[in-house]
From TrEMBL:
<dbReference type="Pfam" id="PF01966">
    <property type="entry name" value="HD"/>
</dbReference>
<dbReference type="InterPro" id="IPR006674">
    <property type="entry name" value="HD_domain"/>
</dbReference>
<feature type="domain" description="HD/PDEase">
    <location>
        <begin position="44"/>
        <end position="120"/>
    </location>
</feature>
<protein>
    <submittedName>
        <fullName>HD domain-containing protein</fullName>
    </submittedName>
</protein>
<dbReference type="InterPro" id="IPR050135">
    <property type="entry name" value="dGTPase-like"/>
</dbReference>
<dbReference type="InterPro" id="IPR003607">
    <property type="entry name" value="HD/PDEase_dom"/>
</dbReference>
Length: 313
């Protein structure tokens, strides 16, 4: 397997890390879009595998000796459903629970045990506040890569992430940086939110979610949690359910016919913003949101929490 990506310096991969990357659970991430259904209507098309490589690189860069955390970085997303959060919410799944279950599979457990890494320690890394997951108020490496990578795919960065690593640090308290780098990180967070909370991308998630919900209700079947994105689309296309086929057709081929309004009519799709990310890096020992620039970025993020209706012809 060739593992490379353009955002961060090369990292020497340890043999057991290579083995984890070659497991079925991690390889499956190559076929899951990190941006969910938004990948179908935007240029942000990288997979959860590329994101995983980035998170692992960052973790190995800042926590070189922490083998459990490095393993957790490789395995942290393996429980994601196809198209990620849109389908997960629809079916009532929790990808964190699925991730823990897959980490305890024989294939992964064997690699960890053979290299004297306790499965319990890896799971704990994903359930505790630390540099990978972040803390209550401070961003961690998982989300740092998400925001960097999404904006890189949009061509919306004026500095490459590998250029700013010398100005960043990461401890168990989360990511910390100088003022300029903190502002860069917050700009990435804001720009990413402006895209994935736009009406079009909200509609993409909703169209897919509604199609999946209708399919599962009709078939009384929710056994799609470990499918890939393409496998899910194939299942929906073969559903022979008129509403599912119509929703999928709009999502894949007719998004230009969508119209959006902030006036809720009670018809069409209701587009709700589910969550606004409110973490920030540390600056001088405090959250960057305590600075004037950080507070302004949070204010702009909160303004994105709107509700729309979407209809199509």
């Amino acid at each position: 397997m060739i593992i490379n990506e353009p955002l961060y310096p090369d990292i020497c991969m340890l043999p057991w890390e290579k083995a984890l990357f070659q497991t079925r659970s991690v390889k499956r991430l190559k076929y899951l879009a990190h941006y969910g259904a938004g990948s179908l209507v935007s240029p942000v098309t990288h997979s959860r595998f590329e994101h995983t490589v980035g998170v692992w690189k960052l973790t190995a860069w800042f926590f070189h000796e922490d083998r459990a955390l490095r393993a957790a970085a490789i395995l942290h997303d393996i429980g994601h459903l196809p198209f990620s959060h849109a389908v997960e919410r629809t079916l009532g799944y929790n990808h964190h629970v699925l991730t823990e279950r897959l980490i305890q599979s024989e294939e992964i457990c064997t690699i960890l045990r053979d290299n004297k890494i306790r499965v319990e320690d890896v799971v704990a890394c994903l359930n505790q506040e630390n540099g990978l997951t972040g803390t209550r108020d401070i961003i961690g490496l998982d989300h740092v890569d998400s925001f960097f990578r999404d904006m890189y795919m949009m061509g919306d960065v004026d500095r490459l992430p590998n250029e700013i690593l010398p100005f960043m640090n990461c401890t168990r308290a989360g990511v910390e940086a100088d003022e300029t780098t903190c502002s860069f990180i917050m700009n990435c967070i804001l720009s990413d939110h402006q895209l994935f909370l736009s009406p079009l991308l909200l509609a993409a998630d909703q169209l897919l979610a509604k199609a999946v919900h209708r399919y599962c209700k009709h078939h009384n079947d929710v056994s799609i949690s470990l499918l890939t994105d393409d496998e899910l689309l194939s299942v929906l296309k073969r559903s022979q359910i008129k509403e599912v086929e119509e929703l999928l057709d709009v999502l894949l081929y007719q998004t230009e016919n969508l119209s959006f309004s902030e006036t809720l009519t009670g018809e069409g799709l209701l587009l709700n913003v589910q969550k606004i990310y409110n973490k920030a890096p540390l600056y001088n020992g405090k959250s960057y949101v305590e600075t004037k620039d950080g507070a302004e970025k949070i204010r702009q993020l909160q303004q994105l929490e709107q509700t729309y209706s979407a209809e199509w012809t």
